[in-house]
Each structure stands twice: as structure tokens, then as C-alpha cells.
Amino acid sequence: MPSVFVKLFTRRVLTDPADGRTLIRLIGEHAPSWLPHRFGWSVPLRNVFDPDRFEEFWTGLEYNLDWRNAKRTAAGHVTTRVGPRDTLSSVELNGERSRALDPAALASLVREAGPALDLAYGLLHMFHPDDLFTGGHGGHLFGENQGTPFLAVTERGLKECLPDVAWANVFGPPYVELFGGAGRVRSAPAAVVTELGPDRFYLQLTGDLTDVADDRAALVAARDAVKEHLGADCFAGYPGPLRAPRLPMAAQEGLWSPPAGFDVPDDLREMLDQAVREGKTPPPPAGVIEKGRPG
Amino acid sequence: MSREFHLVTRERPAGEAFRDALGLCGDAAGAEVDGDFGDPNAYLNVSGSGLWIEIEPPGHVEAADLDGSYDEDTILPEPDGDLCLWLTVAHVPAGAPDGSAGVARRVLGELAARYDGVAIEPGAETGPGAG
């Protein structure tokens, strides 16, 4: 059962194999036991991962990409922002706690992914039942499906607010702006605050990931203090109106074209027209891409 | 409601055998096959008059990944030397023409017989070699 979760959100589309190579390099450097062994876009996974045939692995992204490690103790999932209203692509990694997994190295993975994948937001957390959406404190990092925890941090949810402060967090430019600027984030009362680049920070609540379970009082105190410092109204559970970055949607950025015969709603039509006016070239409609793809 | 049919074999079913099996179904006469049965990552559509089936062509999956997928009366073939089996999946979406599910069941059943495999309708398993 997975208990350690990483999720990385970026405005990049992530279909570029260079992004995939960066991601796999980071996993190989920091969490090699989580490297892919089998991959595919449906389960059971149909392909064996071969680094020498990397593009074959990453082009699965046209539909979806799932993988798992050889020991069946870790999994990865990539979602690209291919829908018209999508604002962020994401990568989720999760796995069991094991001796082969170094929590500090996972933190390095998340931290280095910040600039390398141009993260808008990233997190690392360990499952704890108090962090379920039923936990009562308003945060909702996790859900549970028949006893199996899953990370409940979604692109759609981020349009409303952040779910909580995780043990480790990367906040990119949209969030740094939301919180009031770099100065505000730099002075956050977290155990580790590292400036990763212009308007991009790594915040870690306590010294060790296992504090999520083993020193709950310290984790909760740091979490609540950081939330208050950054702006409680940016996080789930705040009783008043919530705030979140307003990121451009794929249709606005010329990243989406309606499939043939699709009845385009007025707001999407407006976004498409605006993208064209701004000189953006939308991709061919879905279906044409597949037929035009080299074998 | 959509329906799904699985074929599990030790050997990889050939595209020619798939077309032969389709040809044996009277209801599939003149069906058009769009896609490559040899590409495990492709999606293949079978369409025609009163017919719509979406097929995931044979994929070489680890036999252990199929553990618990079917009821205990379903006996899968012995895995190959890589401890893998070939899984083919036919989806009949909700709203597909009425005869589609019957054709999917017969085609996968025919291939199961030819390759000494097992055709399964998950949730309504009928045992080894069924179809």
C-alpha cells in the first residue's frame, strides 16, 4: 500500500521527451527504487521500460502514462494539460516506505524538480489518517478508497485553493505572487525555506518526513503557522472566500483545438479566438495528430 | 452499460487470426478494422453495420498482474518464459449497436480456442476456454 506521495504540477505540457528525461533522471538520482519497470496507458501495464527506447515510453503521453517499479512497490502517473480548461500538467509518484527509500533524497527530488520542470507547485507528504479530508481540520491532502489512501491533490482542486501545507512544498511564481511576494515566502516559519530561483521556493515543515507520523504535534504546529503566514484563505478549510492563482487555460494558450463536430461553448470559442489573435497556433484537432504521427 | 471481454493466451494472437475469427462471424460481414492488431499500445476499432467494438490489441503483461482479476474458476494458461501472458481486451461501449457484444464474445472465443487460451467476460466468467 503506498504511503509516501509526491506530486508535481507544472504549466508545461510535458509531452516533450526532454521533460521526461529530466524526471526520470531525478528519480534515478534520488529514488532509484522508484524507477519504471513496466509502463502503459492501461492496466495491466503492457510494456517493459527500456531507457534506450525512451521516446517510446514518453510518447504514451498522448493518451496517458502509468508506470510501476519492478518490485510493485511504487507507481508513477503523468497527466498532461490536453483538455481545453486544463491549467497544469502533473506527475504523481507514490510508493511504500522501505529501507531502499531515503526520505531526504525524495525531498531533494522535489526541490530539484522545482526549477528543472518549472513547477508551479509540488509536494511531498507521507500518508497519515489525520490528513484525510475527513480529518476535521479542513485540509484534504488524502482520500481513501477501500482502505487504500490516495493523494487528493488535483489540478481541478487547485483552481479553488491549496489543499493544505504538505511536509515539503515547492511554490512557483503563481503561488509566490498569491502569497504576497518573495519576501513573504522567504520569512515563512518553516524548518527549511530555500529560494530555488526567482519567485520559486522550497518549504519544509520539519526536519524529517517521518515527523508526519512520529512527531505529529511539531508537524501540526508548523503547518498551521505556515498557513497563517502565507494566507489562510489560500488553503482548504478557511471559512471565508478562498484564493487561488488564476492560470491561463490550455485553450487560451493555443494548446487545444476542438475535435471535429465538437459543439464549442461560447467561452471556449472566445478563448480560441483570442489565442489566434495573439498569434498562437493551436494544434491540429485530436485524431489528426495520431494519423500524422510517424510510426 | 459498456461491456468488456478479455482474451488471455500464452502465445501472441496474430492479426491474421483475428481477421479470420471476425470473418467467421456472420454479424461482422463487411466490418471495417481500423488500427494495427500488432501494436500493443494502439487502439483498434471494428465497425460496420450494427457493429462497434474497440479493441486493445494483445499486450505482453506479467501474469502476476492478472492475479485476482478474474473469479477463481477461471484458469489462465501457464505463463511463458518471461512469466508473461498475452492479454487482448475488447470494449463494447454503452450505446454501441446491439450485436456488438455478441461479435466481441464470439471473436475472442474463437481466438481462445485457436490459441488454447481463455476468453473471459469479467464479472460473468464462464470458465476455462469459454467463449
Describe this structure in a few short sentences.
The complex is a heterodimer of chains A (295) and B (131). With 295 residues, chain A is α+β, with helices and mostly antiparallel strands.
Descriptive notes:
The complex is a heterodimer of chains A (295) and B (131). Chain A is an alpha+beta fold and 295 residues long. Helix content of chain A is 29%, strand content 20%. A 10-stranded antiparallel beta sheet of chain A has the order 3-2-4-5-6-1-7-10-12-11. In chain A, strand 8 and strand 9 (148-151) form a beta hairpin. Chain A is globular and about 55 Å long. In chain A, 41% of the residues are buried. Chain B is of the alpha+beta class. Chain B has one domain. Chain B contains 2 helices and 6 strands, in the order E-H-E-E-E-E-H-E. In chain B, strands 2-3-4-5-1-6 form a 6-stranded antiparallel beta sheet, covered by helices on one side. In chain B, strand 3 and strand 4 (51-62) form a beta hairpin. Chain B is globular. Chains A and B meet through loops of A and strand 4 of B.
